[in-house]
Structures are given as C-alpha cells and as structure tokens.
Amino acid sequence: NTLALKGYKVLYLRIAEPDGNILCLSQDDTFTFKGEKIVYSSKEEIYYNNFAEDICIYWEKTKAFKNGVYYIDIFCDDALLGTSTLVFE
C-alpha cells in the first residue's frame, strides 16, 4: 500500500465469542477506534515498509471454547483492516 506511511504500526486482534463477549486478558486492554475505547484480545507491533508480508498475531487460549461462530477483526491506525469468522462445533 503506497498510501500508508512507512514506520512502526500496532495491529490489534479482537476475537468475539458467539455471545459477543470479547476474549481478553483484562478489560483494561483497550485501544481507541473511531473515538471509542474498545477491548482487544492481542496486539503486535510491526515495522511496515510499504510491501506485503505475512504477519502472525498470537492469542493464548485462557478457557474452553464455546460452540458457535467467533468473529475475528484486525485493526490498525483507526481502521478495520479485515474481518473473518471461525466456527467451533
């Protein structure tokens, strides 16, 4: 992306359980998105150099997964970069 500036970026991973609860270690783990503080599951600082690369953000499982659809979002620089779903049966 030639429009994004080179430099250090913080990526935020947000995982929502089927009931909407966000998987997190602490309710104090927040970042600002569109003027609101929201809880994140994990974060990773990277150096962006204007080229595509594979990035992994790890989240440590702290409890058993419930059955249902989990919603996964990635945020950076006050933007939602992507979203996905994962189903546990």
Question: What percent of residues are in strands?
Answer: over 45%
- Sheet having the most strands: 4 strands, antiparallel
Radius of gyration: 14 Å
Overall pLDDT, averaged?
92
Report on the structure:
This protein has 89 residues and is mainly β. Helix content is 0%, strand content 49%. It contains no helices and 6 strands. The strands form 2 sheets. The protein has a 4-stranded antiparallel sheet with strand order 4-1-5-6, with no helix packed on it. Strands 2-3 form a two-stranded antiparallel ribbon. A hairpin with a 2-residue loop joins strand 5 (68-76) and strand 6. The chain is globular, with a radius of gyration of 14 Å. It starts with 6 loop residues before the first strand and ends with a strand. The mean pLDDT is 92.
Summarize the structure.
The chain is mostly beta strands and 89 residues long.
Give the key terms.
four-stranded antiparallel beta sheet, mainly beta, 89 residues, globular
Task: Record the SSE blueprint.
Elements: E1 7-16, E2 30-33, E3 36-39, E4 42-48, E5 68-76, E6 79-88
